[in-house]
UniProtKB/TrEMBL annotation, chain A:
Residues 17-248 form the ABC transporter domain. Pfam families: ABC_tran, TOBE_2. The complex is composed of two ATP-binding proteins (PotA), two transmembrane proteins (PotB and PotC) and a solute-binding protein (PotD). Transmembrane segments: none annotated. The keyword Iron does not apply. This is Spermidine/putrescine import ATP-binding protein PotA. It is an enzyme of class 7 (translocase). The lineage of its organism: Bacteria, Pseudomonadati, Pseudomonadota, Alphaproteobacteria, Rhodobacterales. One of its GO terms (molecular function) is ATP binding.
Automatic annotation (TrEMBL), chain B:
Residues 338-546 form the ABC transmembrane type-1 domain. One of its GO terms (biological process) is transmembrane transport. Belongs to the binding-protein-dependent transport system permease family. CysTW subfamily. The chain crosses the membrane at residues 40-60, 342-364, 370-388, 426-445, 479-498, 523-546. The keyword Transmembrane applies. This is Putative spermidine/putrescine transport system permease protein. Pfam families: BPD_transp_1 (PF00528). Keywords: Cell membrane, Membrane, Transmembrane, Transmembrane helix, Transport. It comes from Poseidonocella sedimentorum. It is found in: Cell membrane. GO terms for cellular component: plasma membrane.
Amino acid sequence: MNGEYRLAYDGGEDAFVAFEHVQKSYDGETLVVKDLNLTMPKGEFLTMLGPSGSGKTTCLMMLAGFETATHGEIKLGGVSINNIPPHKRGIGMVFQNYALFPHMTIAENLAFPLEVRKLGKAEREQKVRRALDMVQMGEFGSRRPAQLSGGQQQRVALARALVFEPELVLMDEPLGALDKQLREHMQFEITNLAHDLGITTVYVTHDQTEALTMSDRVAVFNDGRIQQLAPPDELYEAPGNSFVAQFIGENNTLAGRIKSMRGEDVTVELDTGEIVAAKAVNVTGAGERTLVSIRPERVEIDTEKLGPDAQTIRAEVLEFIYMGDIFRTRLRVAGRDDFIIKTRNSPDQRRLKKGEVISIGWLPRDCRALDA
Amino acid sequence: MSATASDQSDAADSGPVLAADGTPLKKSLNRALRAQKLRALALIAPLLIFVLMAFIAPIGDMLFRSVENRIVSNTIPMTARVLEDWDGESDLPPPATFEALYYDLFLAAEARRHTRLGTRLNYEQTGLSSLFRSSGRGVDDVGEDQRDLLEDLDPQWEEAGFWHGLMQGNGDSDRALLLDQRARLAALAGESFQGDIGFTPGEDIVALLPQTAREYTAFALFTVIEDEDVVAEEEPWESVYTALVQDLRTADLSLYSGPGAAELTRAQAALAELPPIDFAAAFEQIDEDWIAPPVWDTIKMYSPDYTTGYFLNAVDMQKTTDGPEMRPEGERIYATLFKRTLFMSLMITFSCILLAYPVAFLLSNLPMRSANMLMILVLLPFWTSLLVRTSAWKIMLQQQGVINDVLVWLGLVGDDARLVMINNQLGTIIAMTHILLPFMILPMYSVMSTIPESYTRAAKSLGATNWTAFWRVYFPQSVPGIGAGSILVFILAIGYYITPEIVGGTTGTFISNRIAYHISSSLNWGLAAALGSILFAVVLVLYWAYDRIVGIDNVKLG
């Protein structure tokens, strides 16, 4: 199920960007990227998400041409670009620290890619103006990068990567240095721009919210492999393995052993003895160790609401945190005291008290049995 | 905004902002910061004092010597004063000048200071050194006839006690003259002439015989303080007799009744029969150069306390009676030396840039471990003596040296046509480039290592070739390093001494070598100071120009 969306492009003739069995090693001893396979259609906004050291930036640098693949092939528009130097790839790139040339004005920075492409002066000026207007920086052409704020520099860097109209744009954690509010604003602007201009975008970040809100698809990297490649909603709601489940969003896990398995439905005996029903994701059969994962917002304290299928379990309230729009409650469930539930601050919502023993419940389809 | 806050801002409009207790805010801030400033000052005080005493003060003193010229007015003060009034139109100064010179020179010879003045004036006109030395001996004989007459007339004139009584007088004493003479001797000998001498000139006798009293007082001071004898037991110098002879020609003794009145009257009568002393003729007899006009022109030109002479010398000019003018073609050396120093320093700076840039670039792009290893190699020369490094170049570059031997062995150069690479400009440039190279690499490296790789990467991703990315993006950002290195190397080079001294020969020496020569060999410190001041000024001007053109903010050492 998690591969369904991806399969639509796999090996397709219309794959615009393709990594085929790509491996990368810096020292000849360990692989930073292990057998990477990835295809992207034109116009897609794909995010590479993962903890630091997971190989996502290396992939981006290989695509940009600053690192060479140790093995495998990288294709752009169906042509292998392994041996094409970076400046001939025609890929726009936005760097983490923006990399605006400090000795040039904003306009000169933007004109640079056009100049090296030997465009005429008039055409250059027109394109620069259009690109600056596009990011609402029209008045800043004569300033130096150091005279701009972080957000403004960010916009200029974006405009510079787009001014020569590349078909593919790479962004390496471009919003990492901005404050939260600005970051959210820029996320919105970048996705809008990318979709309006129909540019194919590869975006690297370690911020999962950014990945979820911006992307068409997200590739979750860990340990040099793509753990899951899926649209944001699928990634969140149907994590393919326990790493993805843990990495994306908040997640409650309960350890146990598979008792019985029928198709997708499994019964799991938790280590403390409780029996819970769950959906099998990447477990193979009875007797196997498993981690059962439930999203905090799918847990109900009013078990009546859930209907007859509901799985209920006893819980003791350890902590009740008022967060404004939601309540966040920490519970002790099945011997674990880091079980979190989130409830909406609606008028009829009950505020739990510390020490209270309650019954919580969830639907079996929201409870996923993953690899341990 | 609260009410109080707006009140405060109103106050700010009408006058100085006040602190809570009503004192001006600035004052109160200063008070709060004072302790902090004092503590900071205390921390740098040891270094500050050291630098002031060991660096600023000696340099200031040295620079001051380039204009200081008090030796003339200190050694022959009366002559200098008389010469001030001489317009220089006539060939020789008025006769009074020779008389003044007699007294000045006599005292200077007693204090053995006349030869110094001779040496000083010899810088300006050759021959003055020996003229002063011989004259110091010759002045003893001036007025010999008159002196003999006095002594024949009355043996009292040979008695120390008589002289003492005569000069002391009975009435009030003239302390002003004593002070004057103390100052005169102090300036002449360069040491203090304070302390009781058991003699003060009498007021009456000073009025009656001013020159005699003056010379006797000087004699008394010198005898007691320098020779550590008793005045009343020493026969006066010849100059005192000569002064008496001169005084008696005009003195009116009719009203004088103090000690020795009778002897003086008799002496005046006897001396009237002899012709007056002709000082000009006496000096001509000592050395006929004294009546040569150039000698007097030189003395007059250099008698003021401050002179431009050293600076004029340093730029190949000289003072003449018609104002400063260029030296004759064959005597100009300093302009050539200054030009050569600047040219070679520029060459050295330029070759350092060429050699250091790739090294610094490599260093800044290598992984930390290998970069540190190579950095040690760059710093290694600092741990070798400068003298050794320079001498090594001598071995390498000389005609029977390593490089020539290799070239001959390879057959590239004939054995009879070995290259001359040492004791000339080429040798100096090669050796100094090598020695100053680390000073170029280090600032370049520290600037280059702060340039993130992402700039070049960005340029390449924007479509720039390797060369364009380097030239348009990397290079401009490394310019501050080049600037810092260049200033460092150029300023070091322009004042370099040891290397050009050893490998420079005659064509590769710098102005600093000439300065060293004047400091240690010719002992013309004034000229050395003037040359040094010009060098200093050139460096400051270049620094200023660099600041105007490149901007000193663009210089980074790290």
